[in-house]
Amino acid sequence: MRSVNECFDNVKEDYFKFLNKEKILGKSKAEKIKSLKKIYIPISFWIENKYKKKGETLILGFSGGQGSGKTTVTGILKIILKKFFKRKIHVSSIDNFYKTLEDRNKISNKIHPLLKTRGVPGTHDINLVKNFF
Questions:
Q1: 18, 29, 27: which is closest to 72 by C-alpha?
Q2: In sequence order, what are the residues at sequence separation of 6 or more whose Cβ sits closer than 8 angstroms to the Cβ of residue 129?
Q3: Which end of the chain is more exposed for a tag (fewer CB within 10 A), N or C?
Q4: What DSSP letter does each residue of 2-13 carry, written as one string?
Q5: pLDDT (tens digit, 9 = 90+) per residue, 61-117?
Q6: What is the DSSP annotation of 27-63?
Q7: Three-point CA angle 60, 32, 17, nearest 5°
Q8: Counting beta carbons within 10 angstroms of the beta carbon of residue 61, is it exposed (0 to 12), middle (13 to 18) or buried (19 or more)?
């Protein structure tokens, strides 16, 4: 059986590169190592076990407010699942499905100025989401 330590040794370099690239600050290196070993790697093992039991494509959803860490968490899990478990991973974000700025400007003029801003309800292209999935 594969272990957390084996996984850690395999992914730690890419994990720290990712954290540096994304400018994830605030925690000491020891805390970042602890998070990898105690949170991200166990979640990755859980995902791998779910995938093995299902035997087909697994779709996971992550929900949270703006700035809560969804992109960071999925980025780290992607590293582990690709590098250690050799899985093909695709991450899509609701941020990929905003209406164009032109469309948001049009609806902001008709309905409310806040609709120019991404993230406000009504600014996502629902048809694009439906066609994507």
A1: 18
A2: 97
A3: N
A4: --HHHHHHHHHH
A5: 998 887 889 999 999 999 999 999 999 999 988 888 999 999 999 999 999 999 999
A6: S-HHHHHHHIIIIIHHHHHHHHHHHHHH-S-------
A7: 80
A8: exposed
